[in-house]
Amino acid sequence: MKILASKNLNKKQSIVLWNTNKNISKYLDAPLEKFLKKKIKEKKTLVTIDQQGRFIFILANKKQKEVHLEWEQYRKLGAQIFSTLNTEQLKNIHIEAKGINIDQVSAFIEGLVLSSYSFTKYHTDKDKNKSYLENISINSDLSQENLNEINEIYKAVSFSRDLVNEPLSYLTAEQLGEEIKKAAKEFKFTAQVLGKKQIESLKMGGLLAVNKGSFDPPTFSILEWKPKNPKNKKPFVIVGKGVVFDTGGVSLKPTAGSMDLMKSDMGGAAAVIGAIQAVAANKLNVHVIALVPATDNRPGNKAYVPQDIITMHDGTKVEVLNTDAEGRMILADALSYAKQYKPELVIDLATLTGAAHAAIGEYGIVSMGNAASKYKNKLNLSGNTVFERLVEFPFWEEYGELVKSDIADIKNLGGPVGGAITAGKFLEHFTDYPYIHLDIAGPAYIGKTDAYRTKGGTGVGVRLLYDFFKNY
Ligand code: BES
Ligand code: ZN
Ligand code: ZN
Fold this sequence. Notes:
The protein is of the alpha/beta class. It is about 35% helix and about 20% strand. The chain has helices at about 25, 30-40, 65-85, 100-115, 145-165, 175-185, 195-200, 205-210, 265-280, 325-335, 355-360, 375-385, 395-400, 420-430, 460-470, and strands spanning about 1-5, 15-20, 45-50, 55-60, 90-95, 135-140, 190-195, 220-225, 235-240, 240-245, 290-295, 310, 315-320, 345-350, 365-370, 390, 410, 435-440, 445, 455.
C-alpha cells in the first residue's frame, strides 16, 4: 500500500471529504451541496455520491460519549468506503482533510487500510477476494512520517493475520521460526530460534511434553528490539502462545466443531511477533523482548497423557489432567525463562481458554494480573484507543487454590468454575515479576468480516501492544 501526503487531486480520482471542510464547495456544485446539507441534518455520517464510477464520499462526525468511540466510528467509515471502492475495483483514493482533527484522520486511514487485507495465497484464481486499493493520497495535517507509521502498523497487523490464517500444512513450529527470522532480517530486530536439542538442554518440560505426540519438533524463539538508549532500564517481555494446531491431544477436543478453528491457536504468538515488528519498523525507543514457545498438540504415539507428571523449566512438577490444557504448559516454560531478564513487566497473549471466549465473545480481551495499576491503566487506555478493549477478571488467591494438586505441585486443570482465571493463576506460578495475562481466545479469529476486522485471523494484540509501548 502506498500512503502519500499530497495536495494534488486528479479530477477523475475518487475523493473523501469532511463535511466541515471549508473548501467543500470547490468539489461540489450547488445542488449537490444542498443535497449534502439535507443528509447531514438527517445525521448521516457518510454520504456517497456516485458520479459514474467516480465517488465523492463526505464524512460527518457524530458525537459519541467518549472520544475513542468516535475514532472507532472513523475506522468503520474507512471500512465502509473500502468496500464501495473494492466493488468498483478502484485502485486510488484521495483524502482531503486539511484542518481536520488528526486522530480522526488517522483512525479513518487505519480503518481503510486494515479493511484491504485479504488472504489469497491458496486461491488458484488470483482475482478471488482480491483487494484493489493500492494508492492513498492525502492532504491533511499528518506528516509523511505519521503516514508511514500507520503503514507499518498495517503491515504488522497483516503479517500477524497471515500467520494465523496459515494452516498447519504450511505453518509448523519450525516454519514459524523461519517466518520470525525473515521478519527480523527485514525489520532489523534480532531473533534466535531454538530447536529441539536446545529446548531439551534448557529442560523446558512443558513444551517438550506437549510436543511428544507430534511428528514435527518444537521451537522456542527469542525476538529482541533494543535501541541504544531505551526509555526503560529493564525490558518489557511479551510472550505469545504458539500452538500451531490444537487437536486437544489424547484428550481430543470433545465438542463437534471445536477443532475447526484451531490453526488459530498461535494467535498470541502472531500478536507478539507483529507487535515487535511494528515497534522495530517505527523505531520506538523502548527495549522489548518477545518469547514464542511453539508446537502442535496431537495424539501421536508418544503423546503425553492425563496423570503424567511433568517437570517444568523451573523445576515445578505439574500433574497433567487434560492434555487439551496445553497452552499453559508451554507458556509456563516461557514465563520462567523470562525471569533472567529481570523485566519491568511481562505480558502474555494466548488463545488460552474457551471460558474467556464464552464470557465475553469476540468483542474484547480478558485480562488479569498482579502488575501495578499504573500498568493496567495504561494498557486499558491503549485497549480503548485502538479498540481492542480489555475486561479485567479477578485474580484472587482463592482461584490459585483450585490448581493445587494432591500428588504434585500444581495441576493443569482447575475446577468447574473460573476456567479463564484458574488458567491465569497456573501461569502466575511461574513468574516472579509484575505480570499481566491476556486471554485472546474470543477476538483472535472471527468467522465473518466485521468492518475492518477481516474474517479469519484478526491480528488482535498488535495495535494494542504497539500503542502501549509508544505511550511508555
Ligand atoms: N486452544 C484452546 C482454547 C480455545 C478455545 C481457543 C476456543 C480459542 C477458541 C485451549 O488449548 C483449550 O483447549 N482449553 C481448554 C482448557 C480446559 C481443558 C481446561 C478449554 O478452554 O476448554
Ligand atoms: Zn487445548
Ligand atoms: Zn490451545
